[in-house]
Structures are given as C-alpha cells and as structure tokens.
Amino acid sequence: MAVEASLMLLAAWVVVAHVPMRRWRHRLETASDTARRPDAVLTEGALSTARGVSRIVRKVARRAPFRAVCLPQALAAQWMLRRRNVPTHVVFAARQGPESGIEFHAWLRAGGETVLGDQPGGNWQPFEAADTSVRAEPLFTPPDR
After folding, report:
1. Is the Cβ–Cβ distance between 125 and 105 less than 8 Å?
2. pLDDT of residue 28
3. Is residue 54 within 8 Å of residue 108, measured between CB atoms?
4. Of 91 and 134, which is predicted with more confidence?
5. Sheet of 89-96: strands edge to edge?
6. Model confidence over 26-78: pLDDT tens digits?
7. In contact, 123 and 95? CB cutoff 8 Å
C-alpha cells in the first residue's frame, strides 16, 4: 500500500502544482451524498480502512522528496479510498492569516469523521455551504496555480 500511496501522492502533487484547479475540482464533487453529510455513518471496517490509508499517506508524505501538503495528501487518500469503495469528501477551507493574506487548508472526511488533515484551530471557512441537499457554490475561489 505504501507504493500505491507514493504513486497517488506524486500524481496528486503534479495535479495540484501544475493543473489549474478549475480543470479538476469538478471531479471532487462526485463524492457520494453519504460522505458529505456530517452525520453519515460508515461500517467500522470502512472507517478502519479510511484511517489506515490516511495513516500511510501521511507517512509517505513526510518522506516525499517534494512538498506534499494537505491538499495532495487529501487527494491521494481519496483516490485510494475510492478504489476501495469507501466514500469520502475533500473539504476546502480558508481563513484570514495572522499577518495578512488568506491561508488555505484541505482535509478528508469519511463517515462524518476527519480521517486526514486534522482541522487546526481557528476560523476555517469551508468553500461549500453547509446545506448539501443542493449544489453548493464556493464561498471563496482559491487562486489557480
């Protein structure tokens, strides 16, 4: 699984670093409605799989020869979990930085639980509205890379 995580992390890093977000963000919105609901319940086996994959992705990211921050990690784990039929949802968020400017963060949720990218303290504002019964429009648009 570490080899798979390495390949997925590299692919995610390339996508984030070199492909404009407008070209790939729509693929993230295909996550199932179950994964998007905060009260979603997955089997313990599926949650265990999500935690295990996330743990391996974090370990590989620490040793990667490139800077694999939160978004490539969340994408890599989501891709791996999609192959294992575990529904997930990548959450994008922003907040005002302590000095100036906007800080961005991403984390991965499965079954109403954050499985990768602990949400650090602060006023993180998710890009999507809380009501997932309708297609949410982004509150912020991150800059294209």
Report:
1. no
2. 67
3. yes
4. 91
5. 113-116, 102-110, 89-96, 125-126
6. 666 444 444 455 456 788 999 999 999 999 999 999 999 998 999 999 999 99
7. yes
Q: pTM of the prediction?
A: 0.77
Q: Which own/partner pairs from 54-58 qualify as long-range (CB within 8 Å, at least 24 positions apart)? A: 54/108, 54/115, 54/116, 56/1, 56/2, 56/5, 57/5, 57/8, 57/9, 57/116, 58/116
CA-based nearest residue to 53, from 30, 80, 73, 25: 80
State what percent of residues in the chain have pLDDT above 90.
40
Rounded Cα distance, 39 and 26, in Å? 23
Q: Which two structure tokens, joined as six digits, stand for 9?
A: 């992390």
- Do residues 35 and 109 make contact, with C-beta atoms less than 8 angstroms apart? yes
